[in-house]
Amino acid sequence: MRLAVIGAGAVGRSVVELAGEHGHEVVAVADSSSAVVADGANGPDGRTPGVDPDAVVARKAERGIVGDGDPEDALAADYDVLVEATPTTLGDADPGFSHVTRALERDRHAVLANKGPVAERFGDLRAAVADSAGEIRFEATVGGAIPAVSTVEDIEPGHVTAVRGVLNGTANFILTRMAAEGLDYDHVLAEAQDLGVAEADPSFDVDGTDAALKCVILANVLSFGAVDDPADAREFTLDDADVEGIRDVPGSTLRLAAEDGRTVRLIGEATGETVRVAPRLVPENGTLAVSGTQNIVQIETTHAGRLNISGRGAGGPETASAVLGDVGRLK
């Protein structure tokens, strides 16, 4: 597949670097202010050669741009799959939503790492897909390398009653350290920021927004996948989620929980009816008590019982592996 990668952060750069290992070719890359597009001349095999991945990544690191072109050049390039890896935005979910719909209007496929369009405008995306020969995939929007979406799809959403889990590595790192060292939230947050685990503004993670967006996406998969007519599905957005973060979890709560063989984790849960994210008491040695930046997804099924999938829920190469896995599912 020929890929146009929109977004040159950690995920976009990793897609550019790893695409060749998966048998794909990157023909265009754009960041917010620049682009590089492969020369239109055909190579010896009659195909247009892709961009040089090493040169793109090096230029981004050294000069802060990926090329001398305009981002519009990448959107207009001759590609098979658009990879949408720009930062997540809420509300109208632009520019990511517009990038994806432009690809669909050209009957091209789109693979998203950007959670915004899938969490905030899922119905609009479904309508755009219905009018296109292209498809969308979005495994990378939920749990990084963990195949949560594809597992639900393989089981069939109508046979899944709930999906829950630990879906934010930053919040989990903080809660793990608070429990292990008997430290309070502010102390561990500062440590996480020094280590690069938490952003300078950690609100998206510690307030539960990131986990809630992932659960909203899963709720949409469950809701739309369980009906024959999309008009019968309930569409979820972040406004439909009941969300509580970890800022107000005192160290004393974790210490008391430990005395009872339990600990606290930020647990998100999605069904076809509800989305909830909040700190919950879980068994200290239980499945949901993953440590550090690990994530875990539990899938409750009607016939196969409970399935547990754990792994790295974030990171450039990890999330890029989910993106490229989605590309491989397209035809």
UniProtKB/TrEMBL annotation:
Residues 311-331 are annotated as: Disordered. InterPro entries: Asp/hSer_DH_NAD-bd (IPR005106), HDH_cat (IPR001342), HDH_CS (IPR019811), HDH_short (IPR022697), NAD(P)-bd_dom_sf (IPR036291). Keywords: Amino-acid biosynthesis, Methionine biosynthesis, NADP, Oxidoreductase, Threonine biosynthesis. Pathway: Amino-acid biosynthesis; L-methionine biosynthesis via de novo pathway; L-homoserine from L-aspartate: step 3/3; Amino-acid biosynthesis; L-threonine biosynthesis; L-threonine from L-aspartate: step 3/5. One of its GO terms (biological process) is methionine biosynthetic process. The active site is at 214 (proton donor). Residues 149-327 form the Homoserine dehydrogenase catalytic domain. Belongs to the homoserine dehydrogenase family. Its EC number is 1.1.1.3. Pfam families: Homoserine_dh, NAD_binding_3. NADP(+) binds at residues 7-12. The keyword Transferase does not apply. The lineage of its organism: Archaea, Methanobacteriati, Methanobacteriota, Stenosarchaea group, Halobacteria. L-homoserine binds at residue 199. This is Homoserine dehydrogenase. NCBIfam families: PRK06349.1. GO terms for molecular function: homoserine dehydrogenase activity. NADPH binds at residue 115. Residues 7-139 form the Aspartate/homoserine dehydrogenase NAD-binding domain.
